[in-house]
Each structure stands twice: as C-alpha cells, then as structure tokens.
C-alpha cells in the first residue's frame, strides 16, 4: 500500500491581498510563499466563505458554510456537532499537531486529537505559559513593542483591554486577546514575536518526528496570529521597505454611492465618528502609506516565519511525501472604499479574496497558476482527500481541489457563494455574494443589491444593479445565488 502523505497546513490571519498583490511596483514581499507556489500551484480566485475569523475558521475545519455549522460571529460558539477533519485524521492513524490561533468556537485543537499549542477563543500568545517557558528556554526576553500609531476603538478601548498603549512608548499586551489596532516596532529580537515563537515550536516538533523513526503519517497545522493587526514587525523587516511610496489605492476615495450601509461603518477613531466613516478620510494619503508600509513589513515577517517551517521540512527530508498548503482565513479592508482600517461586513474583494498555494512533490506539477473559483469550504475536503479519506458523518459543501492540480478529470463549479451574518458586536447584517466569470453579485438584506464587472471595474466603484442594460445579468446572478442557497440548505431569505 502506498504510504499516505504527511500534511502541513500553514495559515495566516487577516491578510491584505487584493489588489495589493497585483501591483508590480510595490507589493508585499513574500518570497517563501511565492517559492512554494512556484513549486506547486497558486490560485488567483480563492475566496473565504465568510470574511470573519470565527465563521471561516470553523468552515476550514468542517467544509461547511456558517449557515450550517452555526458559527455566525466570533462570539457565537455552538457545540461541534459536525465532522471535523482533524478528528477524522486522528481516528485513521495520523499524528496530529496544531500550533497557534484557534478562534473557531468552543474548545481548541486539543479537543480534536491534536498535540501542540492552542487556546480557546482569540487568545494572546504573549501571556501564555508556553510562550514564557519557550522564551526562558531560549534565553530570550518577552516581546516588547514600541507604539508608533494607535486608534481608539469604541467598545474595545473603553474596556481597557489595551491599557498602556501610548504612541512613542514601549508596550506589552496584558489582555486576554492581542488584536490591537496599532502599528509599531517589536524592539526585542524577532524570535520573541508570536510568528517566530510558533514557527520555532513547529520546527522543534518536526525534529522530534524525524528523530523518532515513527512511520505514521503526521499532520502539522500552524496558525499565525498575523498579519492581523497589530502590525509590530521588527526593524529588520521594516527596513525591507525603504523610501516606501505607493500610489493611492484604487478605491480609497470611493464616495460609497450605490453601496449598502455596511460600507459606512467605521469604529476606529479618528477615521470614524459615532461608528460612521468620515469622508474624505481624516488622514492624508501620506499617513496611509505609513500604515501600509508596516502592514507589508508584517506580512514579510510572517512569510519569514513560515519559511522556517518549509526549510526545516526540507532539511529533515520530510518534504518528500508531504502536501503543503499555505493560505489565509480572510482578507483585510485596509485603506479601501473610503479609508477603512479593518475589515467589515461589506463584501468587497479586499475582505473576501485570499492567497492560496499548495505543493506536493511528485504529485502536483510545478508552476501552475490557476483561476478556478475555490473557497475555504474546499480546504478540509482537500486535506482528507490527500489522506485517502472523506467526510462520512455528514454532507459537506466543499470539493477537493486535488483533481484540478493533478490533471484528473473533474467537473468544477462555474460560480461560488460567500456569506456573512455580520460581525456581531451590535451589527447583525446578512449578505450573500455570487462570483461567476467576470461578474460579482452582492445582496445585503434590507439594503441594496450590487453588481460589478470585475474585469472592467477591479475596484468595485460602479454598481450596475440599477442599470437597465444589465438586468439580464442581474436576473441570472440572482438565480445562481438561489441555487446555491437551495443546494447548501441556506435557510435565510435575502429578498
């Protein structure tokens, strides 16, 4: 019997990708991700099923949309009643290891057959005993960050979660979660940053596996907290973007005409007032360039940490029969559509489109750049397929991507749905999206419909839903959405 492959799944969190990654002049430097992609396959039309951590992270465990698995928001935590791919791997003889952020409902990876390091909810690695022990073991200080700019966030800053965060001052996060809306520099060695801490633990585990001689296949998953804000790269990575200048983002000055109300919400002060985005932006583009520089440097830092894991696999000879996937849970709305700092419940490409690359030496031919529509609903199905398994306890919404990249015949989807039930925290918004060819349709309940031609309007500035010339397209997209809702058991009526 052919030996089942090892599985390595690397996941970033909240990554600014569209349309930054298409800018040849100034784009995030991600050499390790791009090397992995060149050795396997990269998808340019990968989407999250929902643009929020909790819903899409549970989707990546179950292969189900949020309207089925029930994790609508970050804080709605229904019990797990559907099959989780990690449990299935464990039950079928895999050694399962998980390091990093969970944020996918109750419990953590340990409840699904995994050894390693994860805590329930969002978490703060810098306050965990494992982090403190790791720093002590390696004679490293605990991370300290210099705050260069921070925002007041209504409903969060009020609670005192990030007390002590003051521009120009050193800072250590003492709260139970570490999603500060801030930029700055990690002034301690890069190894003290959460990304290198996780990568270091993962590499130590790989060394243990290699030394053990255990012939069982393993699954290793590493979920970084970044490049979600706060953007605290070390100076080394910030210096990779000297004299940084980037042209104003294509929809930064969007007037939001023809957009649903969700685009107008902005909690970060002074960008918004009373939760409403101030337009034009209260910050000149030169200040946005500074934010983007730190964001890009943070991405490069995460890329370097992920590269540590890839290099360790190769060094130990563990990459020979190993499927490697590197992706992100959802996008980021930084600087888009009027000047947002964070993501929101608006369903633009910036928050929905994600990077995705995969490699399986000797199985996936190298150098593929593919444009099929894939989604986070597909990722767990793909992982089990690689291991010769399927979800058997319940029906799933995703398909395995492997036939696409291995040249096997497969009838692939021609359209794709994403959804949101809102971000919660006082914002319960329901919206659905359909992508088909060059078209994108969005419907926000009790609000506007949107229709965009993404070939001609990559920044989604011209809503064609009210244009009589495109009513046939609009009707077709409505029908496609209705079909997806029927087939996936979506109980929510949008019109």
Written overview of the protein:
- The chain is an alpha/beta fold and 495 residues long.
- It folds into two domains: 6-429, 3-Layer(aba) Sandwich (Alkaline Phosphatase, subunit A), CATH 3.40.720; 430-494, Arylsulfatase, C-terminal domain (2-Layer Sandwich).
- Helix content is 26%, strand content 19%.
- The protein is built from twelve helices and 20 strands.
- The strands form five sheets. Strands 1, 2, 3, 4, 9, 13, 14, 15 and 16 form a nine-stranded mixed sheet that branches. Strands 17-18-19-20 form a four-stranded antiparallel sheet, with helices on one face. A three-stranded antiparallel sheet has the order 7-5-8.
- A hairpin with a 2-residue loop joins β18 (431-436) and β19.
- α1 packs across α8 (285-315) and α6 packs parallel to α8.
Brief account:
The protein has 495 residues and is of the alpha/beta class.
- Helix percent band: 25-40%
Level-1 CATH class name of the largest domain:
Alpha Beta
Largest sheet: 9 strands, mixed
C-alpha termini separation = 53 Å
Instruction: Tell me the number of helical segments per DSSP (H or I, 4 or more residues long).
Output: 12
Strand content: 15-25%
Provide mean pLDDT, rounded.
96
Structural class: alpha/beta
Taken together, the total number of domains comes to 2
| Overall 3D form | globular
CATH level-3 fold name of the largest domain: Alkaline Phosphatase, subunit A
